[in-house]
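Render this sequence as a predicted structure.
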Amino acid sequence: MRWKKLFWPASALPVLGLLAYGLTRDPNIIASPLPGKLAPEFALETLEARPLSLADLRGQVVVLNFWASWCLACEAEHPYLVEAEHKYSDQDVQIVGVIYQDSRSNAERYIRKMGGSWPNLVDPGSRVAIDYGVYGVPETFFIGRDGIIAYKQIGPVDRRVLDTWILRLLVGEDGRSGSLSSDTSRVGRSAGYERRTPE
């Protein structure tokens, strides 16, 4: 009988240890396997019912932004996207929005209010969001001319993030235009959580 009194507290120790470890972890950090890999292909319709695929954009730097009209952080980052659209309008940069779990009418209203003329894609059933591992908005992927994802931003982008990754992809780490394939260690996700691929 006495061993039972000792067994129950002792059996709780591993559970308490796991709980304590879990409380020290940042729940917002979710590793993404995509930086450094080919971006998943997609073919969707824009809000204007025009078809657009990732293959159509090959050779350009693509800023793929998942957003929703109900997302306050999306509203906060939107002016920076509008600014980047104007700033890089004469270069091979294409911003593409993917509407996340939102209605077409709400998205159209949002774009009319907030501005921006880049294509915004309707993603029925969030199939593309699932392919990209999106678990909340905003999330933004920076894709090089070669179709490789260089960086994943979890949370809103700002001017610094946009300029850093757009310019890095336009020029390339090695001074050549358009890709980071010569230095695959320079890929990452969200500031402060840069992921380095093995040499």
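Summary. Confidence is low (pLDDT under 50) at residues 18-28, 179-186, 191-199. Residues 18 and 171 are 46 Å apart (CA to CA).
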